[in-house]
Hints:
It is a single chain. By secondary structure, this protein is mostly beta strands. Helix content is about 5%, strand content about 50%. It has one helix at about 185-200; strands at about 25-30, 45-50, 55-60, 65, 70-80, 90-95, 100-115, 115, 120-125, 130-135, 145-150, 155-165, 170-180. A six-stranded mixed beta sheet has the order 4-13-12-6-10-9, with no helix packed on it. It has a five-stranded antiparallel beta sheet with strand order 3-5-11-7-8, with no helix packed on it. β7 and β8 form a beta hairpin. The protein is rod-shaped.
Amino acid sequence: LAKGETMKITYDVLFESPDLSGQGVLNTAKAQASNQKDPDKWVEDNNEVTLAKPKLAIKKSSNRVTFKPDEIGEYTIIVTNKSTTATAKNVVVKDNFNKDGVKIQKSSIKIENDGKVVKGAEISCKGNSFVIKTKQDLAPNADMVITYKAKFSKKGTYKNTAVATSDNTDPVKAKNTVKVTKSGVSPIQEKQMVTQKGDNTFV
């Protein structure tokens, strides 16, 4: 390399470990010449980059807010990666009802990752709860949608909490509440129905 000349080296680096999310990574470059005055001396320069961290968000909903015993509710969980640059690794989703009297139908559980059907997920379902190891990464700005059905066997107020996490994100959760009544409507609706019947006037 002649005096005044410059040598430029460019390369790409793939950061593979999810443990690096949100961390600073320091890179040191060193150079020397075979004919320099001090053969043991190196010149060096440093550069540090901070890796983006994915951020999950979750929503939970049901097709209705009131049911009758022996009716089936349909539930939807939407997990979103809010990051524009970082991927969430190995997403896991849990869901749990607060009491017995409801049974999740394991065969009804469906998973889509960014619109594509997910196969091969590890699903552990026990009565009123499940754990899904999706074995899937969630890309930036992408959604993972989980749907399932649950059958109610007795009256009561059923609260359930869905939790989503991954190897490189903090857990997030969402809650949903439904009521199971004899008539399949809420106590307020029942009262309104009774009032409406009492207001009927016949001529």
